[in-house]
Amino acid sequence: MNVTLLAIAGGVIILGLGAYAGYLLLQVKKQTELQKQHQALAIEKRNANIYENVNTLCLAGIQGQCDLSELSIRIYYIMDNVQGDERVDFDAEYPATSELFHIVENMARGEDRQALEKKERMEQNLARHKAETRLNDTIIEELKVLQKKVQPLNNQINIQMI
Questions:
Q1: Per residue in 104-138, pLDDT tens?
Q2: Chain center to CA of 93
Q3: Which controlled-vocabulary keywords does the entry list (predicted)?
């Protein structure tokens, strides 16, 4: 009788521990799903912020308020930070802007540009100007396409902790 009683008590304890372990596993699963949802929302919010900036840059480029070389550098680097499914292969989708970026990305800018010798600075200016002139119309069209692409995605999302 004592053995039967001990076996029943042991079985009840094991059953209780199993139920508790199942409950803990369910809680971990819920927490993991919640973390994935928060991560997806954070990525979506970050992308929306990026698209807002790209939209502004596209508008400045279309209206001629910014040098196309500087614009191509900024847009290329900003769009490289897009995450998730909206990630863009910029070289394939916007070849002219990408080409100008690859031409001017290693050229000196700002204080580094002022430190260059006059001849070297003029050579860089000439190369930059030739590339901008040659690619101007195509880049403007690409900027219009990019602006239309990012505009509907530019939805600010308010994230609240649950």
A1: 888 877 777 777 788 888 888 888 888 888 988 89
A2: 16
A3: Membrane, Transmembrane, Transmembrane helix
